[in-house]
Design a protein that fits this description.
eight-stranded parallel barrel, TIM Barrel, 9 helices, alpha/beta, 40% helix, two-stranded antiparallel ribbon
Length: 263
Amino acid sequence: MNNYPFRLGTSSYIVPDDIIPNVRYLCDKVDDIELVLFESDEFSNLPSKSDIALLAEMAGEHGLTYSVHLPLDVYLGNGDRDERERSVGKCRRIIDLTRDLPKSAYVMHFEAGPRVDIKGFSSEGLKRFVDALHDSAGMLLDGCGVPASMFCAENLDYPFEIVWPVVEDAGFSVTLDVGHLEFYGFPTAQYLERYLARTRVLHMHGTKEGRDHNSLAFMRPEALDLVVGALRAAGGEPKVFTLEIFSEQDFITSCRVLERFSS
């Protein structure tokens, strides 16, 4: 049996099928499954009530938890309060839908709008963005019945220290996406030092031909060593180590890379 200093996870899109077949495939291979949920006018993969019951049953049988990725098309840092209310409402529907599942985290993105480059904001624009996030955080937590620490803000393509005050003030946790750190050129060692203690979930993936979310075979070995070493040194409750990849081949090759950390 593998004895990693983390709980191994991956996404609910490893085999080319719906969520339930993916969970059936993965349930004896991982400890946590990231449910990547979408809802739009054109397409929705939201589980039915009977699907939720089956997901809960499979989790009970195999000791699984689920990290629920809140929808990508929510803009909690948008300047328009109507848009923030829509975004929070979309998150709350997912929270209600998945309430009966055993969960490790709710993963969320702090964004201002579709294709909005936060790195290009002026100091006044950054203040408006952070103020909007504070407002959304209050709406999200108000009466939702979920501890703030279950919500994990994920680092994206802008410096995470921009939104750190929101994380601290709201009592949120962190999804430390190491694949993003490597892809966008942020200092992985510094982020581990600053944010690992507040992290519930790590997202791990490699970069290949200018694209991220590939097998760990394409992550710098030094970065992977750094992460696993930091997790071993941290001790305490094991964090979820999510292979955020989307194919069976990437999953198999990533697991092979991890074999050298098993003891």
